């Protein structure tokens, strides 16, 4: 029966990166690592195709930057946001770059790096069950088909790391009574557009669609551009007609022919957009011997493309912390390490998690108060300067700071209120010549009521997301928890500062 130091289930993004990273640890004895994957064929998915600059930085720290070579990866330098006939350019600051690519090609490149790493065995097999002894996970049972024969094997290790993705088969088993359920608000419907030019080349495009979720577009190879159309639950009966009749007319006309061609040529593929808060691991309620990693543990809305960045950053930190543990078979030491990992990852992971869902709620506005915030958010970006650099630094993983996120989020909220009072708005009927006018003093009482509703909506969006990042603790987490609670209290204070700063800028 094969015996390893570390057993990793899942060779998507996090699994191969961790296997390679652990193989390079400066230890007296090189660890033996088994990396299991049910199929080593190139995967074909419509998400996981844009890596933010923060993810590129993490990949470089792991010595895996060469994985971009030979896969026709495209440099990404920021975003273009479209709202009706208007657009705003949101570049990454400081010359930072991300990368976009075909998901399968990048996965195969990561697997190749893991396969070449010293002490790593890349094994094609399906993990079916966890092996437990004395209440601790010590390995996995696997099956593999060879022709007509089904081969059953067991693999054992000091640590079992589960990185089998958003549809994890082992999440509930590992987390036990502490498990959280993924929440799915919408689905991405994806296709590939051939030989199109986006509004700003080498930039992701986010189109805000009235009556529907946002549309993402980014180039993934020389000739291919991914389009992801967010459709809220429940999905319409005729999905293709819904997209052609309600979504496509609101996109740039230069893309219409390519979209029609793509929808006629291939079937629409779907992927759920789920949110799963990170629950503390290594507590009394979870399984000893096993660790969840990647989407098996923590998910956020893919609107901001932060999933791979969080996963790779988690791998960087987990590798470093495991390197400080001498004996991986000592679960008490691993528990302390997991507690440190849980809180040390918070600045980046919490920032990306909260921003992804909050921005989706704003961009997919479906009530009048969210619509106010969405309009204010777009006009906030139009101001340029720090109103762009700050948010995009947060989104891209360059500036992992919940305090900065709170500052900009509530600055958007108060600026949205200012826009209602002071910016011209369309007052003419739909079929008449467009006429814009600033609100009259007689409208102020109604706008004040609307302002309260908009601010309360901003709190309702941001508050539960912040709480979801803080509330999953165990009794022995008090020291780290108090540190994060203190930062959260500061975040509330930032709101008051944001009011003054926003009004000063507006005036």
TrEMBL record:
Assigned EC number: 1.14.14.17
Ranges for domain Squalene epoxidase: 157-428
Keyword field contains 4Fe-4S: no
Cofactor(s) for this UniProt protein: FAD
Stretches that traverse the bilayer: 403-423, 444-465, 485-503
One example of a Gene Ontology biological process annotation: ergosterol biosynthetic process
Cell location: Endoplasmic reticulum membrane; Microsome membrane
Keywords: Endoplasmic reticulum, FAD, Flavoprotein, Membrane, Microsome, Oxidoreductase, Transmembrane, Transmembrane helix
Top enzyme class: oxidoreductase
Pfam families: SE
Reactions catalysed, as given in the entry: squalene + reduced [NADPH--hemoprotein reductase] + O2 = (S)-2,3-epoxysqualene + oxidized [NADPH--hemoprotein reductase] + H2O + H(+)
MF GO annotations: flavin adenine dinucleotide binding; squalene monooxygenase activity
Record keyword Nucleotidyltransferase present: no
Membrane topology: Multi-pass membrane protein
Matching InterPro entries: FAD/NAD-bd_sf, Squalene_epoxidase, Squalene_monox
GO cellular component terms, A-Z: endoplasmic reticulum membrane
Protein function: Catalyzes the stereospecific oxidation of squalene to (S)-2,3-epoxysqualene, and is considered to be a rate-limiting enzyme in steroid biosynthesis.
Family membership noted in the UniProt record: Belongs to the squalene monooxygenase family.
Protein name in UniProt: Squalene monooxygenase
Originating organism: Macrolepiota fuliginosa MF-IS2
């Amino acid at each position: 029966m094969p015996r390893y130091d570390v057993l990793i289930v899942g060779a998507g993004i996090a699994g191969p990166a961790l296997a390679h990273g652990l193989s390079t640890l400066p230890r007296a004895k090189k660890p033996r690592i088994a990396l299991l994957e049910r199929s080593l064929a190139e995967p074909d998915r419509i998400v996981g195709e844009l890596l933010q600059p923060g993810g590129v930085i993490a990949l470089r720290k792991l010595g895996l930057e060469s994985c971009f070579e030979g896969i026709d990866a495209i440099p990404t330098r920021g975003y273009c946001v479209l709202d009706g006939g208007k657009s705003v350019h949101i570049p990454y600051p400081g010359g930072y770059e991300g990368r976009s690519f075909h998901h399968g090609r990048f996965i195969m490149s990561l697997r190749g790096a893991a396969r070449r790493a010293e002490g790593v065995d890349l094994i094609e097999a399906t993990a079916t069950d966890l092996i437990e002894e004395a209440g601790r996970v010590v390995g996995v049972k696997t099956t593999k088909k060879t022709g007509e024969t089904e081969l059953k094997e067991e693999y054992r290790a000091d640590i079992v790391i589960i990185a089998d993705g958003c549809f994890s088969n082992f999440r509930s088993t590992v987390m036990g009574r502490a498990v959280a359920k993924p929440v799915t608000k919408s689905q991405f419907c994806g296709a590939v557009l051939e030989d199109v030019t986006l509004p700003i080349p080498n930039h992701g495009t986010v189109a805000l669609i009235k009556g529907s979720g946002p549309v993402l577009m980014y180039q993934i190879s020389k000739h291919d551009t991914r389009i992801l159309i967010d459709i809220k639950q429940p999905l319409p009966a005729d999905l293709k007609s819904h997209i052609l009749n309600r979504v496509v007319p609101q996109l740039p006309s230069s893309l219409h022919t390519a979209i029609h061609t793509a929808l006629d040529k291939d079937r629409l593929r779907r992927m759920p957009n789920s949110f799963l808060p990170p629950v503390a691991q290594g507590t009394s309620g979870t399984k000893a011997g096993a660790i969840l990693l990647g989407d098996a543990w923590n998910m956020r809305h893919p609107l901001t493309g932060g999933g791979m960045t969080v996963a790779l950053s988690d791998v960087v930190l987990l590798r470093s912390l495991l390197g400080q543990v001498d004996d991986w078979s000592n679960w008490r030491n691993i528990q302390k390490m997991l507690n440190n990992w849980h809180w040390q990852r918070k600045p980046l992971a919490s920032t990306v998690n909260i921003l992804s869902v909050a921005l989706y709620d704003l961009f997919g506005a479906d009530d009048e108060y969210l619509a106010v915030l969405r309009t204010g958010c777009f006009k906030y970006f139009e101001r340029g300067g720090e109103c762009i650099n700050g948010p995009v630094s947060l989104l891209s993983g360059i500036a992992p700071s919940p305090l900065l996120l709170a500052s900009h989020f509530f600055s958007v909220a108060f600026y949205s209120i200012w826009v209602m009072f002071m910016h011209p708005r369309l007052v003419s009927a739909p079929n008449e010549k467009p006429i814009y006018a600033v609100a009259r003093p007689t409208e102020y009482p109604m706008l004040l009521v609307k302002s309260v509703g908009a601010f309360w909506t901003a709190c309702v969006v941001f508050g539960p997301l912040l709480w979801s990042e803080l509330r999953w603790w165990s009794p022995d987490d008090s020291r780290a928890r108090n540190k994060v609670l203190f930062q959260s209290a500061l975040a509330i204070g930032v709101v008051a500062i944001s009011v003054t700063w926003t009004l000063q800028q507006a005036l």
